[in-house]
Design goal:
Blueprint lengths: L1 H16 L7 E3 H4 L4 E2 L23 E3 H15 L3 E7 L4 H12 L7 H4 L25 E8 L4 E2 L22 H15 L3 E4 L2 E7 L15
Parallel strand pairs: 2-4
Antiparallel strand pairs: 1-3, 4-5, 5-6, 5-8, 7-8
């Protein structure tokens, strides 16, 4: 009897650990395993300087429609020895809450020199860099760039991912010709495949016909 109880508990815990994603959500690798990814909020290298709540593994989760649209982009890029690289995709609401909590801790400026050197932390809300809701939590928004597969390096976009400042605006003028060209190409290929860009971040795109335009999810990335 004890053995049966143990086996039941074991399989219950295993099924809970491997719980399926909500309807219409997928792991990007199940749709296209050639797309590169490095979830910045699963690491300590981000604007907070520590792993973010809700990110338990380095796996990209998106709505199925978004994953399929990215697959189309990837097929075009691969022919040019290029690849997409994902920095962030679905983001749980608890992760957004972590950002908000951090933004209120004015003295915590560990990563200021790298990510927001010209912006006072007290103005992050006012300037729109931190908000209580994020389109990422709807599952159809991605932060990404392009990688040269020959060199293994990201294309030079003129500013790093998650840099808080006008330098990250897609049409910022004070960058080089090649950097402008790279930003323009990323924007063009994403728009042509069903995404809409964000005016303040060259890396940020949302599927135009996202399936959950008003729903903010909070399941873990695991």
């Amino acid at each position: 009897m004890k053995n049966l109880i143990f086996l039941f508990a074991f399989f219950f815990s295993l099924s809970a650990f491997n719980q399926s994603l909500p309807n219409k959500f997928v792991f990007l690798s199940d749709v296209d395993d050639t797309i590169l990814y490095e979830l910045k909020y699963f690491s300590n290298h981000n604007f907070i300087g520590k792993k973010i709540d809700g990110y338990l593994t380095n796996k990209v989760i998106l709505t199925n429609e978004t994953a399929l649209a990215l697959k189309k982009v990837q097929q075009i890029l691969l022919k040019k020895n290029l690849s997409l690289k994902i920095f962030d995709a679905y983001r749980p609401q608890q992760s957004v809450n972590h950002f908000v909590k951090w933004a209120k801790e004015i003295d915590d400026t560990k990563m200021k020199n790298e990510f927001y050197p010209d912006v006072p932390k007290s103005e992050l809300f006012k300037r729109g860099y931190i908000a209580s809701k994020s389109g990422h939590s709807r599952g159809s928004t991605v932060d990404l760039t392009i990688v040269n597969l020959k060199t293994g390096k990201e294309l030079d976009m003129g500013s790093p991912f998650d840099f808080f400042g006008i330098q990250s605006h897609p049409f910022y003028k004070n960058i080089g010709i090649l950097q402008k060209r790279n930003r323009k190409y990323l924007r063009k290929i994403m728009i042509e495949n069903g995404f809409k860009p964000y005016d303040n971040e060259w890396w940020h795109f949302t599927l135009k016909n996202e399936p959950f335009p008003n729903t903010y999810f909070n399941f873990l990335i695991k």
